[in-house]
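CO-FOLDING WORKSHEET

Operator: S.A.
Ligand of interest: flavin-adenine dinucleotide
Run index: 372
Mode: holo prediction, single chain
Checklist:
[x] sequence pasted
[x] SMILES validated
[ ] output reviewed
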Amino acid sequence: MHVTIVGAGLGGLVLARVLHVHGVPVTVHEAEASPSARTQGGMLDIHEHNGQVALRAAGLFDEFRALVLEGHEASRVLAPDGTVLLDEPDDGTGGRPEVQRGELRRMLLDALPDGTVHWGHRVTGVRALGEGRHELTFADGTTETTELLVGADGAWSRIRPLLSDATPEYTGTSFVETYLFDGDTRHPRTAEAVGAGAMLANTPGKGIQAHRESDGRLHTYVALSRPQDWFAAVDFTDPAGAAERIAQEFEGWAPELTALITEGDTDPVLRPLNALPVGHRWDRVPGVTLLGDAAHLSVPNGEGANLAMFDGAELAVAIAAHPGDVEAALRAYEGALFPRSADEAAEAVRDFDLCFGANAPDSLIALLTGQA
Ligand SMILES: Cc1cc2nc3c(=O)[nH]c(=O)nc-3n(C[C@H](O)[C@H](O)[C@H](O)COP(=O)(O)OP(=O)(O)OC[C@H]3O[C@@H](n4cnc5c(N)ncnc54)[C@H](O)[C@@H]3O)c2cc1C
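OUTPUT RECEIVED:
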């Protein structure tokens, strides 16, 4: 049994690592040219009940703990005028430690045998050959035949059409991403407003959400519920103009908060939020399955990377538990995946509404304090 994974995100890499732990040979095809081809985004809080379970299954729990940024689990909610509405310091007892996504990915890559990941292998086509076998075509024109194929290739999966006609749809909200470097010395009032961990200043339909990363970097997602046409009219090729236009939507907000938009050290990046239908599932197709965002892309609520890693570990364990019987392994995996993903996707929609719905920020505070 050889497993072929498309996508070296956190989900695909956990699958590869847990398969390796169980002695199952595996190849990962990744579109990006190298591990450092793209910055890997910001902080992830890794949850006890899913992300941490997956890292234990990968035999990498101690290595993960060594990456945790102590103190960064703090969270606070601010009103638009900068008033602190909720302040929960990191007292070391929380179950959601924070790590840099790039460091977690590096840890997983280092735990795989050399040559497992084939970098610069973008899948451009896939077709069924019958009896559970598939042929992958890569951007360089080469092909490969698979015995067991896993689509771990994220939101716009090339593998998903083998199983389902579903495509992600715009949720009505986009994030605009900015970074302020060296916040404590260059932007002390803003750094103070963000605090030691996460800061959320949300109101109905919009918000400024920032996180303190290592080296005092302040990483911000500005949330705006606007149609895609609205964002299309903002010229992101003019970074300063785009930042000004986005900041106009926060007129009257405290300057230490709007500085997170206007004082950015990197160009603002538009990140439209898309989602698959809640409860997305498919009929069993021999020799192929999906995990992570490819299977259940949802609005972000801090679970997506955790769920992708959990899926990866669950699938690997199912494959190892059914030697020589791919279909039994995939039935067992999908039998648990579908209800779990449906519940999680429904919860993501609910959480998103608590964050940005009509009752924000009161509903957000209720969510963070377990009262929702
Ligand atoms: C703005 C934003 C903030 C988020 N914040 C959080 C958070 O705080 N916590 C959290 O848990 N989750 C968060 N998420 C969700 C999280 O990022 C995803 O759920 C998670 O990355 C999914 O992992 P994955 O392995 O399924 O896919 P991905 O991480 O998307 O990895 C897919 C991989 O497949 C590769 N690939 C794609 N197409 C091909 C192809 N054709 N051929 C070969 N390779 C291909 C890609 O290059 C990529 O490396 C956030 C999402 C967004 C949009």
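REVIEW:
The first strand starts at residue 3 and ends at 6.
The first helix runs from residue 10 to 21.
[x] output reviewed
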